[in-house]
Amino acid sequence: MTWQQFRERANVWLYDSKERALGTFQWLNVGVNLTALSVLAIYFGYPHDEGTAAGLFGVVKMSFGFYVLHYLIRILYHFQPRQLFRETWAEGLLMALLLVEGAGDLMFGKPFLGAALSSIPGITDASTLLVQGYLFIAILSEWMRKGSRLPKIRLPPAVIFILSFLALISVGTWLLTMPEMSTVAGGMPLVDAFFTATSATCVTGLMSVDTMTYFTTKGHWVLLILIQLGGLNFIAFGSFLALVAKFGVAVKQHDVIEDFVNSDNLLGSTGSLSKVVVWCLGLEAIGALALMVLWSQDVPFEHWSDRVFSSVFHSVSAFNNAGITLFTDGLAHPWVAHNWLVHWVITLLVFAGALGMVALFDLVDISKLKERMKQPWKTITFATKIALYFSLGLVALGTVAYAALEWHGTLEGMSGFGKFTTSVFQSVTRTSGFNTVDIGSVGMPMLFLLLVLMFIGASSSSTGGGIKTSTLAIVIADVWRTVRGSDHVQIFQRTVAPILRSRAYSVLLFFLVGNMVGIFALTLTEHALITQHGASFFDLAFEHVSAMGTVGLSTGITADLSAMGKIILSVAMFVGRVGTLTVAFAVGGRPLQSHFKYPEGHTMVG
Q1: Pick from 312, 230, 225, 235: nearest CA to 280
Q2: What's the pLDDT score for residue 268?
Q3: Cβ atoms within 10 A of the Cβ of 154, count?
Q4: What are the pLDDT digits (tens) for 164-185?
Q5: Averaged pLDDT score across all residues of the chain
Q6: Domain region containing 351
Q7: Which of 83, 265, 422, 423 could be disulfide-bonded to 402 (CB atoms 3.0-4.6 Å)?
């Protein structure tokens, strides 16, 4: 019997059990991944003796055996093993490496590579780092594997997206309560951990504690990961698309999906998730390099690694419009309060993140630039014009207003360049929550204008929140059309479709009602804050609009909020982050087909 004949008979014999066996391993793979990551989190989040630590790491090492077994099972059930080897050669090499390292660990107590690295002067605990690296690479390779399928779970797309955000917040809350994440005895209280995890995941930046002194380095890493994973709303949605694509995305959903991926062709390469990820990470890396060079000597970094981490943290926080810093009082801290070049780097990162990747692609992508050079009559797209021109207009308005209203206030004593930098910075930060001055010291007129700017927010497909510049543009154009008695709503020589007007007014009403309900709730829960701590109704309104707009600016009352007040703001941050997406799915869902309409009604308006 030849090998080919043996394989054919084996395939026939295995065929009936193939689907059941591979399906079982799909579920097991999810469980093993979650178990290994949870054990690794416990390993780093709690203090352990040597025996407990070795036991926890043993569980992680056992997961490697499952990954190797899973790979072998796939080979066994594949009709053409050689083809599978060619298609998954990188994964195969990883599995072979895990086998070799596992043998070394069993025989000598250390993986071969870990033992070799530990012999190099200056490198300690290399085996621990290697095991972590192997784990993350193994899990990443499984999720990126071509043909990978999740267990069949049928849920509406919007529910899957919202649940993914809730899961990230829940995991972040659990991690932040661990003793090793904070400097307080016993770990961070549950309500504060939930509030902080929600703020970081929803890239809001409202903090009830001092980030600089309250968290350990491990806690700062958790915040960084939460900001990166939760901050890029369109990247999160792209990941969600990859998720639902494993169940199948109906063609009727493409129109709604396209609004948030904002690609010229959802099924093409122009809006691919990989391109967005590369651009985002690239811009964050450029920002981190610039910050690493420009930090002043006043910042007392203990090691070069602290300088690198601080640069990466602030670059990621800025591009994602999170507004969380590693300095007490934010960028108003004396170490960085007058470091104008750092302020400009943060400003550019915040503006780029608030502008949106779609607009950035259209403005600076090499292929787009070459196309416009060859065909000069082609201009930037309609969506880019709205994002760019309205963003620049709002920045200009905020800059002029801040300089005029705060010239003898928070700008007092600064140089001319410093006043200009601060005015631009605080105007741009309407979407991020960074501050280079004490917001509580800003005069009431400018605070009110900041509240309006926070309510408007950033552009569509960006990392910022608010009703978006596109909503503002459509509403203004519709009002102008009504005043002038025109037949159509027009912006930049383009007619706005009725469905877009409906979506704009839906989002506007959504934010208006949401803020009114939330502010009313705060007046019920924060009565003591007003009567005993001198806070005002405007402070509560400013705090809630900042939360729902995922901005993060505060007049200084966040730490004094009650537990219920923090929960209300957490709900506002979450709803402000995923609410517009849910509304868009509801508006863009399956249309109701009807072949009749009621008689038109008329009433006075206004």
Answers
A1: 235
A2: 40
A3: 5
A4: 788 889 999 999 999 999 998 8
A5: 81
A6: 257-587
A7: 423
